[in-house]
Amino acid sequence: MSRAVEESNRAMLRARDAMDRAYAEPLDIPALARIAHVSEAHFIRTFRATFGETPHRYLQRRRIERAMSMLLETGRDVTEICYAVGFGSLGTFSRTFRQIVGESPTDFRRRRALAANVPSCFAKAWARPSSFG
């Protein structure tokens, strides 16, 4: 690996680490590009080439991952969690959650709560397709 590629990867990792640490903060491309010491356009292109997704999508995914954890581990309502993980509107949070997870935050919490109350031997059998009929 050339030194230039190594430096570029290191710069992208600095920005990604900042996103991981401050996912709930209002992060924007200019701030992240400054962390990586590159221009905004170069940052977006290089981040996507390095990690396979845009910085915006990465940040959204990290926020949704944290929200999933909070939905399962806390009794906080969906609106509180939405703002706690850095979304500015419940509509955007719900839409993004559904795009990434495949169901609404409320349905995700409800389904996981039901699954937690089913003995694992039944849950495994229930999840398998029936060989009868």
UniProtKB/TrEMBL annotation:
Keyword entries, A-Z: DNA-binding, Transcription, Transcription regulation
Xref: SUPFAM superfamilies: Homeodomain-like
Annotated signal sequence range: none
Pfam family, any one: HTH_18
All copies of domain HTH araC/xylS-type, residue ranges: 13-111
Cross-referenced PROSITE patterns: HTH_ARAC_FAMILY_1, HTH_ARAC_FAMILY_2
Protein name listed in UniProt: AraC family transcriptional regulator
